[in-house]
Amino acid sequence: MSYINTDLSIFVPGALDFEPVLKPIVYNNRPVLDKKLVVRTDTDEPLGVVGSKHRPTPYAKLWEPLVKGLADSGLDLTEATVKWNVIDRGGAMFADITLKAYDYEHIVGEPTRLSMRVVNSVNGKYKYLVSSFLRRLACLNGMTRMADDTSTAFKHTAGTDPEKIGEVASKWPALLEQDAHLFNHMKTVHLTDEDVSNLFAKFCITVTRTETRVNKAWLGRMVNLWDTYKTGIGKNGFALYNALTHYSTHADKDMTRGDLNAKLLRQEQSVSKFINGGEFKKLINYDNFDFKIAA
């Protein structure tokens, strides 16, 4: 299963609406005391091995306070849509929420919507994280932020506080307006092919037990993405940013072994870490961007 589209009023689709339970693990006729197996009760499928103290929480018990928090935040949720992505048969998931009421085209020059990503798991792979970003509709790139003030992490408990979510979410439209102006700043930063290739060589790194090396196939893919975006946008920081965020939000099915959605999440996390690093920010003259949100 790749993804499921719903509107925000549908709390959790059937593929993720189940009770996760812990069951004992037995090896050589002896119980493994410090480990448990997470199992979904509706299909009896194993979803992963966790520590014996792990307490998996059903997705619905975390999604409901999230929706309440967003509703109480003052955000306009008119025609809000959700794209649900199932990982490991339901062991993990991420959902992208798009708010059609917030379009930053008047700043960026093209349709750019406020979006959110919710990451969660019952198998312990991912912490519960809610974050917001701009999505460029022309290419469906999720535009990873270069600041961490539009995300909030929670423990996997049923006691998630809607008020905390609402407090954070109420600030997103203004903060993302700042990002829209940052896009325009990046358009003014001229880059050469050599600048970009040198940066990608620091991103496309494969680490093995014996060496750390540049992955030439990965590097070639990133250079091809740069060539595509510089043609339409120009040889500037925004084209570079789009090449990176395209990689973070698109995965090649034919080149993917294992769970496609898990790979997408790994790619997004690697790009987010890199974009928030010093090398990328230096290249786009991030320190010279001084737009301030109006009081």
Please, could you describe this protein's structure?
By secondary structure, the protein is an alpha+beta fold. It folds into three domains: 134 residues, no CATH class; 39 residues, no CATH class; 105 residues, no CATH class. It contains nine helices and twelve strands. Strands 1, 5, 6, 7, 8, 9 and 10 form a seven-stranded antiparallel β-sheet that branches. Strands 2-3-4 form a three-stranded antiparallel β-sheet, with no helix packed on it. It has a two-stranded antiparallel ribbon with strand order 11-12. Strand 5 and strand 6 form a beta hairpin. Helix 6 packs across helix 7 and helix 7 runs antiparallel to helix 8. The termini are far apart.
